[in-house]
Amino acid sequence: MGEEILSSQFSKEDHARFRARLEAETDLLRQYFDEQQFSSAEPVAGFELEAWLLDPDQLRPLAINERFLRELDSPLASPELASFNFELNNTPRSLSGHVFSSMHHELRQQWRQCREVARQMEAELLIIGILPTLSNDDLSLGNMSNMARYRALNREALRRRKGKPLVFDINGREHLRIAHRDVMLESATTSFQLHMQVNQGLSVRLFNASLILSAPMVALTANSPFLFGKDLWDETRIPLFEQAVAVGGFEDAAFGPIHRVSFADAYVRESLMECFTDNLEHYPVLLPVEFDEAPSQLHHLCFHNGTIWRWNRPLIGFDADGDIHLRLEQRVVPAGPSIMDGIANAAFFYGAVYALANEEAVPEQRLLFNHVRDNFYRAARLGLGASFTWFEDRQVNARELLLEALLPLARSGLQQLGVALTDSQEYLQIIEQRLRNDINGARWQRAWVAKHGRDMQALTQAYLKRQESGDPLHGWTI
């Protein structure tokens, strides 16, 4: 979904041609899996960070991403669905040595350049899961980025729903129910998406480990408690995004159990090919764009996969030499609170997922998938206060699990990966301090409101000031 398309309107013939290409490329991918043709290089890490452009006075969304990106002129920056959001990509790096300090240095440089360009345009930048000052009126088609792929996405989603409006309904600490006629609700959520290029032989174990770790990652990083002035879930971004693209499977199941934004229904059993088979069998083509590349480039398969937003998503890519590789995309982490917190979150995830996948006792045999999924939504609702069902059906508090079991696991995983001890200590110490202070972004925002009142503009100003200091969350004052 990251690339532009030439048309936003499609015919039945377009759908039929795309479907034929998708079927052929899915068969070819199955052959690649059977023949183990994927690159067996050491793990590689990368990420995507989504951010907000704000009016500096009222700290409301500022719809200028086209002009901002033109002035920024960076190949690592791109527009998002709303014209007040944009995305930064980090250069992929081997998961070894000083990988995290190197990532941190690059992201700080990128952010400094972005801030300079934004301020020349009298704008501010912010990284946060959901912007507290956001209003429903901001999420209008007039604020959609000027790209054909987004117009096409909106048109096709509306067609699949037969013109029915989206009804967003969430019960959290308070209740919010609103109707929306387009896909712009999706742009209320911004995230920090972690990528990991993996060896095919370990890919199933890593993918299942990533599923298991999704709930602890949400509890650790939750940063989206407020939407339209209502106090909802710790990570309101989860139910918001799931309902914002409420287009299901094929026509007879369009509003059934299979959704385009979902956690999952089961562990992967034998191969990540299972996900791509599900893509073909259960999800109608949303954007039937025809590409000229040879079937071996799998362009239609990858484009279709980009319109199915699993919280843990397998990706297919090609390196500079044209070799095909597998990546995992962990999508549950919100943007913010600080750049340093983001890099620490990445270090924790990569270490924990690698160590968990390599444990002698297979994790997915020790925890029923239903518990994994229930843990995920419990974490989204309650954050660090959630209770999880963990291995051997033990009941554990999220914070205690993270601090006592998963943090040591992450340290072990980074050591196994060959990450420099100084990097491991620096960034995992941030995670430890955050847990010892019993804080995440959602708790900080709520604590600020409890002390100062529900002034969303003042909350955003206080958050922005602390984010610009560069200090990690555990050092932020209320």
SSE topology:
Elements: H1 12-34, E1 44-54, H2 65-72, E2 77-79, E3 85-89, E4 93-94, H3 99-120, E5 124-126, H4 148-160, E6 166-171, E7 175-180, E8 192-198, H5 200-221, E9 226-227, E10 230-231, H6 237-244, E11 261-262, H7 273-282, H8 299-305, E12 309-310, E13 312-318, E14 324-330, H9 339-357, H10 369-382, E15 387-389, E16 395-397, H11 398-417, H12 421-436, H13 441-452, H14 456-469
Parallel strand pairs: 11-12
Antiparallel strand pairs: 1-3, 1-4, 1-5, 1-8, 2-3, 6-7, 8-14, 9-10, 13-14, 15-16
Helix pairs in contact: 1-7, 1-8, 3-9, 5-9, 5-10, 5-11, 9-11, 9-12, 11-12
How would you describe this protein?
47% of the residues are buried. The protein is 44% helix and 15% strand. It has one domain (12-471): Creatine Kinase, Chain A, domain 2. It starts with 11 loop residues before the first helix and ends in a 9-residue tail after the last helix. The protein has 478 residues and is α+β, with helices and mostly antiparallel strands. It is built from 14 helices and 16 strands. The strands form five sheets. Strands 1, 2, 3, 4, 5, 8, 13 and 14 form an eight-stranded antiparallel beta sheet that branches. The protein has a two-stranded antiparallel ribbon with strand order 6-7. The model is unreliable at 250-257 (pLDDT under 50).
Question: What is this structure, in a nutshell?
Answer:
The chain has 478 residues and is of the alpha+beta class. The protein has 14 helices and 16 strands.
Number of strands: 16
How far apart lie the N and C ends?
A: 39 Å
Number of domains: 1
Structural class: alpha+beta
Largest sheet: 8 strands, antiparallel
Element pattern in H and E: HEHEEEHEHEEEHEEHEHHEEEHHEEHHHH
The level 1 CATH classification is Alpha Beta
Number of helices: 14
Shape estimate: globular
CATH topology: Creatine Kinase, Chain A, domain 2
Share in β-strands: 5-15%
Low-confidence stretches: 250-257
The CATH architecture assignment turns out to be 2-Layer Sandwich
Helix content: 40-55%
Mean pLDDT: 93
Radius of gyration computed on alpha carbons: 21 Å
